[in-house]
Amino acid sequence: MASIAAAQVQEVRSITRIERIGAHSHIRGLGLDDSLEPRAVSQGMVGQKMARKAAGVVLQMIREGKIAGRAVLLAGQPGTGKTAIAMGLAQALGPDTPFTSMAGSEIFSLEMSKTEALTQAIRKSMGIRIKEESEIIEGEVVEVVVERAAGGGGARVGRLTLKTTDMETNYDMGAKMIDSLLKEKVQAGDVITIDKATGKINNMPTSPYSHQELREILNIRCEEEDCQMSADALTVLTRVATETSLRYAIQLITTASLVSKRRKANEVSMEDVKKVYSLFLDEHRSEQFLKEYQDEFLFNDGGGDAPQLMEVSQ
C-alpha cells in the first residue's frame, strides 16, 4: 500500500505546465522586396508567392488611400496560409494597425448573438486616431478692463493686456471672451492661455511653495549635487528660499559645499550658508546695491551728466 501511494505522489510531481505560443507569432510581414516581389523565405513567410504578391498590391493601395472602406476576401483550404497572409498584411502596415482573429465558434455561440460578436470584432479592428491642432497664446495678464459699450446698450466690451516672453500686447475682447474671462476669474498676475480659433480662455493659477515643500526640494537638490548638509543649514537655506527665491537658494548649495570642503568639513554647516549668502546677492539686494551706488557707476541714470566720449584723432 505504501509503494502505491509513493508512486501516485511521484506521478503528480511529474506534471508540468505547458504554455502555448501563438501559431502566427513568427510573422513579421509579407516577405516582399521593394518591387513587391515575394522572397522565398522572409519575415516568417514561406511559399504562397502569388497570394503574397497579390496581398502586396492590396498593401500598396491601402498606403495610397485607394481602397479605404473596402474588404478583401482570402479563400482557400485550411492550412494554406490565409491567416498568415492577413497578419503579414497588418504587420506590414505598421504597429498602429490592429489585427483581430476570429474563429467560427465565436460567431455561432449560445452566449452571444452573431451581430454582437461581429460588432465587437469590428470595433477591435478599428484603429482611429484623431489629431487636433490649435494655435494657443500664453502669457501673464497685465491688465483687464471690462466696460459697457459707448452707445449705452447692454453689450460689454473689454480689453486684455497680455505679456508674453516676446512682447506686451493688447487684445480687444467680445462678449464670448469676456464671459470666459469672468468664468475663469482671471485677474492681473494670472497666467492664461487663449485659443485663437475659439477664444476659449484657460486660467493656470500658480500657488507658492509651502515652507515644507521648499525644504523638501532643497533636500532633493542636495542629494542630486552630492552635498551633505546639516539640518540647521537646511533650515537656514529654506528660510532664504522663502524670503528670496527658490532658484537663488538652489544656487547657494554648490557654493556652500565648496566653502565647507575648503575647511575640510564633511557637511555644510549653517555658517557656510550664511557666508555664501553674504557673498552672493539675490535680486532684491542687488537692486538695492545699484540704487545706493548708482552715482558712482559709469553712464549712470541717476541725474548726473554722462561723460563725453573721447575723440581720437587720426
Can you describe this structure?
It catalyses: ATP + H2O = ADP + phosphate + H(+). It is found in: Nucleus. Its EC number is 3.6.4.12. Keywords: ATP-binding, Chromatin regulator, DNA damage, DNA repair, Helicase, Hydrolase, Nucleotide-binding, Nucleus, Transcription, Transcription regulation. This protein is an alpha+beta fold and 314 residues long. Helices cover 40% and strands 12% of the residues. It contains eleven helices and seven strands. It has a five-stranded antiparallel β-sheet, covered by helices on one side. Strands 1-2 form a two-stranded antiparallel ribbon. A hairpin with a 7-residue loop joins strand 3 and strand 4. Helix 7 crosses helix 9 (246-262) and helix 8 (231-243) runs antiparallel to helix 9 (246-262). The longest helix is centred in the last third of the chain and has 17 residues, at 246-262. The chain is extended and about 95 Å long. Mean pLDDT is 79; it is low at 1-21 and 306-314.
Keywords, please?
alpha+beta, 12% strand, two-stranded antiparallel ribbon, 5-stranded antiparallel sheet, 40% helix, 7 strands, disordered C terminus, 314 residues, 11 helices
Structure summarized in a few sentences:
Its EC number is 3.6.4.12. With 314 residues, the protein is an alpha+beta fold.
Strand content: 5-15%
Q: Using DSSP, what is the number of strands?
A: 7
Structural class: alpha+beta
Order of helices and strands: HEEHHHHEEEHEEHHHHH
Share of helix, binned: 40-55%
- Strand arrangement within the widest β-sheet reads 5-4-3-6-7
Rg computed from alpha carbons, rounded to a whole number of angstroms: 37 Å
Main sheet characteristics: 5 strands, antiparallel
Shape: extended
Number of helices: 11
Subcellular location: Nucleus
Domain AAA+ ATPase: 68-281
Function: Proposed core component of the chromatin remodeling Ino80 complex which is involved in transcriptional regulation, DNA replication and probably DNA repair.
GO biological process, one term: positive regulation of DNA-templated transcription
